[in-house]
Amino acid sequence: MTLLHLISSHTTLCKLLAELQAALDKKLISRPIIRDSEARQLPYLQACIKEGLRLYPPVTGMLSKQVPPEGDMIDDKFVPGGTSIGWNSYGMQRQKDNFGLDADVFRPERWVDEKNEAKLQRVSDTVSLVFGAGRFGCLGKPVAMMELNKIIPEAVLRYEWQTINIERPFEGVCIGFFLHEGMWVRVEERKPHGQDFVDSPAVGNGRLSNGSAMLNDAVTA
Ligand code: HEM
Predict the structure, then answer these.
(1) How far apart are CA 86 and CA 137, in angstroms?
(2) Does ligand 1 lie within 6 Å of residue 92's CB atom?
(3) What is the position in ligand 1's atom list of the atom closest to the CA of 144?
(4) How many domains does the chain have?
(5) Where residue 192 falls among pLDDT bands split at 50, 70, 90?
(6) Closest ligand 1 atom to the C-alpha of 89?
(7) What is the CATH number for 8?
(8) How far is Cα 207 from Cα 196, in angstroms, rounded to an integer?
(9) Model confidence over 70-105: pLDDT tens digits?
(10) Residue 86 is part of which domain span?
């Protein structure tokens, strides 16, 4: 879903490509594949990944747990022992009082523009809950983050992507996790780094150097 959001948002993709290109120019990104440690230094990339996890937490089931026999206090309320409790990951990540009125919108800028450190920490902690927490937390989180830190930048640096059906880009169901199919895309190898998006709106006229328009040009034209 992160990739779909990126290829469907011209401005966002161009900003990400501009950040990646600047890092490539300064030799801050290894070739042929970016290192996890390098990706972590790129704020807009991190914001895109975080925003993707927030809007579509891969695990959405309630992941019920049982309160220990002595009971426990949750949100200042006593919950008796043996009670089955769960949480709604999808709903939590779209709470408007936490993320603002545009909580349903893919907007990575919310992570880079926020100046209030305490608020940033709170919303970051909320997003990290997509991996669970405490002793039940995801054992694969470092692996999952490393994969995202590599696949997202390499996918957009190496290829140009275009969804085939912009009205219904995929068919999907949610059964405690998302199952997507039929996300047909047209993929073309991107020209050598730096030559194909120098004219992007972030730095220019929004056309690829081969003259073709990107997806949102077709939608907004
Ligand atoms: C973005 C990708 C991933 C997300 C969002 C995710 C999320 C989660 C969540 C929510 C749980 C359950 C927490 C609970 O029961 O409350 C979990 C458990 C687990 N995950 Fe992941 N996971 C991801 C990727 C992975 C990967 C790549 C691996 C393996 C390399 C992995 C291995 C595990 C294991 C072993 C557990 C069980 C931990 C335990 O019960 O002790 N996960 N994950």
Answers:
(1) 14
(2) no
(3) 27
(4) 1
(5) low
(6) 10
(7) 1.10.630.10
(8) 9
(9) 999 998 999 999 999 998 999 999 999 999 999 999
(10) 2-220
